[in-house]
Design a protein that fits this description.
Strand content: 25-35%
Strand order of the largest sheet: 1-4-7
Helix content: 25-40%
Radius of gyration: 45 Å
């Protein structure tokens, strides 16, 4: 009986050696990650500061312009002469006018000097951004803000022999008539170029004090 020898079994290959990452590569990777995190943090902080600064400046500019008080832009010395007459005692029968009693007339020529103040309501001023580093300011309607240093004197007075029968002329009332709405509007129209110039200078100085590089545009109502 013939015996067949079994072929020798193949030997299984041993495990391959594992490559180790060099220490210098690990250190380099850690340094890179730390640098990336730091750069991102700095960039975020810089952007945040920029946006915050821009927002803060906008707030500063708007708050500096918006005010609750009246703003006097022009104080004008005005001199005026006004004549007032009182016709005197009228004689009548019933509703029928006969004539004015001679000698009862009154006439007075009054000279007025006063400082009239013109400006705006600060609370009505509007400001909006108008592009990069620019703002548009809208100035409201100019108004009369009162007077000061008033002085009135009688330049000439004529009274008839019987003028005592006629009430005296109220010079104060005449002065108030000089400041009627129509008279004020005429003064404002006359001073408009100066009022607009003063308004521009006033608000430009306020804005430039915050940031000299800001440009300002103006609209007038």
């Amino acid at each position: 009986m013939t015996t067949t020898a079994a072929p020798p079994s193949a030997t299984a290959p041993g495990p391959k050696p594992v490559r180790k990452t060099p220490v210098w590569a690990k250190i380099l990777l850690v340094v890179f990650i730390v640098a990336a995190i730091g750069a991102a943090a700095v960039a975020g902080l810089t952007i945040g500061k920029f946006l915050g600064a821009a927002e803060s400046r906008d707030t500063q500019v708007i708050r500096s312009i918006k005010g609750e008080e009246q703003v006097i832009l022009v104080t004008a010395g005005i001199t005026d002469v006004q004549e007032e007459r009182a016709d005197g005692l009228k004689l009548a029968i019933g509703d029928f006018q006969l004539f004015t009693l001679p000698g009862t007339e009154r006439s007075v020529l009054v000279r007025y000097e006063y400082d009239a103040k013109f400006g705006i309501e600060g609370k009505d001023v509007a400001i909006v951004p108008a592009g990069d580093n620019a703002y548009r300011i809208t100035i409201p309607k100019f108004i009369y803000l009162g007077y000061a240093n008033s002085d009135l004197s009688v330049a000439e007075e004529e009274n008839g022999l019987l003028s005592w029968t006629t009430p005296e002329i109220d010079t104060t009332e005449v002065f108030e008539e000089l400041l009627s709405e129509q008279a004020v509007d005429e003064h404002i129209d006359g001073f408009r170029p100066v009022l607009e110039e003063q308004a521009e200078q006033f608000y430009t100085k306020i804005v430039k004090a915050i940031d000299p590089t800001i440009t300002v545009e103006f609209d007038f109502e």
